[in-house]
Amino acid sequence: MNRKGFLKLLALFGIQTLYPNLYSYPRGKMQTRIIPSTSESIPVIGLGTYMSFDMTAGTKAFQNQVEVYKKFYSLGGRLLDSSPMYGLAEEAIGHIVPKTDSIFYATKVWTRGKDSGIQQMNESFKKMKTEKIDLMQIHNLIDWKTHLKTLRDWKERGKIRYIGITHYVSSAFSQMETIMKTEPIDFIQIPYSVETRDAENRILPLAKERKIAVLVNRPFEGGSIFHSFNNKKLPDYFSSLGCKTVASVFLKYILSEPAVTCIIPATTKLQHMKDNMEAGFSLPEKSEQKNILKYLKELS
Known about the structure:
Layout: H1 3-12, E1 32-35, E2 40-43, E3 47-48, H2 60-74, E4 79-81, H3 89-96, E5 104-109, H4 114-128, E6 133-138, H5 144-156, E7 160-166, H6 173-182, E8 187-191, H7 203-210, E9 213-217, H8 246-255, E10 262-263, H9 270-278, H10 288-299
Parallel strand pairs: 3-4, 4-5, 5-6, 6-7, 7-8, 8-9, 9-10
Antiparallel strand pairs: 1-2
Helix pairs in contact: 2-9, 3-4, 6-7
């Protein structure tokens, strides 16, 4: 039996306290997963910017977010996800990210019409102060047929590297599924959490089959997912997975799905950023999902 298996056995029998040193989970490094269409690897924890980056440069809140970003980058984070919909987020990225940092830039087109889409996407380059956008996504599938033609042209010309589609509700999965089956795309971005598991039925298996990378938004359900777990001690079992907080448990559940490429939680808190990143230091097996749900149910 390997060390990981031994730790799980101890946790299941509730004898963690007999071997405290074994439960001092080693500080590791950020794990990566492959983008199926190219075999390029990216870190499994990224950073979303909805609301958290919608701020004016020079403010106290902005300076706080500078520190949050620094922690993200120092712990191995690379993928930043944004959108014109997120207020000042793209501009904030442009001010915060040093030119020397190796960032995987992901943003979206969020408008109707070919010309409006082109104008908006060109503005994103300017706002984020970058000459490259790695992933351009069609936000909430708005006018997707029109924008997909533009994105294919931009990809062929090297202006962007990857094409994606996004949505934040499971009710859009049927339409996403059709696009995934009929159009050559590199990424999808979907909601997926311990509470919202609809993606497990068809979307995630289809992504694996079609070799499409998966970004996960709303892993914490906008924060509502924590309400049942406030001030409760985690079962010993979670220590064997390297989990110190319930947030890391939620992220571990998602990461135990091999089809998931990267999760993009947003935060304005330095400690939460650290907790989120450390969840990506090891990748659990898919078989852990049942145990995670079982222990969370007992805890809630």
